[in-house]
């Protein structure tokens, strides 16, 4: 697929995906979402790629759904079709991807743009960037996964407040609440993100992918089932070359050279 609304930049063992509609603050439309899904599908099948950086071009991460793209007849907007066919496959692909996704939150992440950021595994935000669930400002409910992510991060009461009041949560507050992993001055954003890239591109990718899956599954499982899952997944991790390399490096008192396999 030719990309017109995202920028795909491949590096030796990681990829940067940049939303590229800066003239509308990277508002999301059918074409952009399809391109992102295609990019993540390509990344999924490439064993050489160890992690992904997701960000936005210009001053925004994403202002959310492009309202001009839903049609002029507001009584005939196919909401269910848009959500189930355009957003849901992308969010599910991101959460099932067995590779870390690092979001560089370079500006506003509003509405579905906020959901997209929350679907990442690590979020590094600029102090001036903010997240906002602005759905109620036009009489809508959250979609694209925010209803799943918010209460699990914040608890029900805070999630309700943010979801219903459309509160802008800036970098430092977002970090204090656990919505983002780090908030740094804008001039430090790139260098901070590269520290995460440097770690994950040399980490045991297979094991990290299993951990990502386990954490997601454990949220709806009783303890006994979680314990059984841990045993089963440990068996998978223990059969990898990275496990053998990790033990050898430990015994030889050197840094392991993980291959992600």
UniProtKB/TrEMBL annotation:
GO BP term, example: fatty acid beta-oxidation
InterPro entries assigned to the protein according to its UniProt record, in alphabetical order: ClpP/crotonase-like_dom_sf, Enoyl-CoA_hydra/iso, Enoyl-CoA_hydra_C
Gene Ontology MF annotations: lyase activity
Keywords: Lyase
Keyword field contains Coiled coil: no
UniProt cross-references to PANTHER family, sorted A to Z: 1,2-EPOXYPHENYLACETYL-COA ISOMERASE, ENOYL-COA HYDRATASE-RELATED
Family named by the database record: Belongs to the enoyl-CoA hydratase/isomerase family.
The protein's name in its UniProt record: Enoyl-CoA hydratase
Organism field: Anditalea andensis
């Amino acid at each position: 697929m030719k990309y017109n609304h995202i920028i795909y930049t491949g590096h030796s063992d990681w990829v940067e995906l940049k939303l590229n509609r800066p003239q509308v603050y990277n508002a999301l439309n059918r074409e952009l979402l399809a391109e992102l899904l295609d990019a993540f599908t390509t990344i999924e099948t490439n064993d050489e790629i160890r992690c992904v950086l997701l960000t936005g071009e210009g001053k925004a991460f994403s202002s959310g759904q492009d309202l001009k793209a839903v049609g002029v007849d507001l009584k005939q907007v196919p909401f269910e079709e848009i959500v189930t066919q355009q957003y849901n496959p992308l969010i599910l692909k991101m959460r099932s991807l067995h590779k870390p996704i690092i979001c560089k939150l370079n500006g506003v992440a509003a509405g579905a743009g906020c959901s997209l950021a929350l679907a990442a595994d690590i979020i590094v935000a600029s102090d001036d960037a903010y997240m906002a669930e602005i759905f109620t400002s036009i009489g809508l409910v959250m979609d694209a996964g925010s209803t799943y992510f918010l209460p699990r991060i914040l608890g029900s009461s805070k999630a309700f407040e943010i979801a219903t009041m459309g509160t802008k949560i800036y970098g430092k507050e977002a970090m204090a609440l656990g919505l983002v992993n780090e908030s740094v001055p804008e001039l430090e954003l790139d260098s901070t993100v590269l520290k995460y890239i440097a770690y994950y591109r040399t980490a045991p990718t297979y094991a990290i992918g299993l951990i990502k899956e386990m954490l997601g599954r454990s949220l709806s499982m009783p303890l006994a089932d979680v314990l059984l899952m841990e045993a089963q997944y440990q068996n998978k991790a223990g059969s990898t070359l990275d496990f053998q390399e990790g033990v050898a490096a430990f015994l030889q008192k050197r840094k392991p050279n993980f291959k992600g396999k």
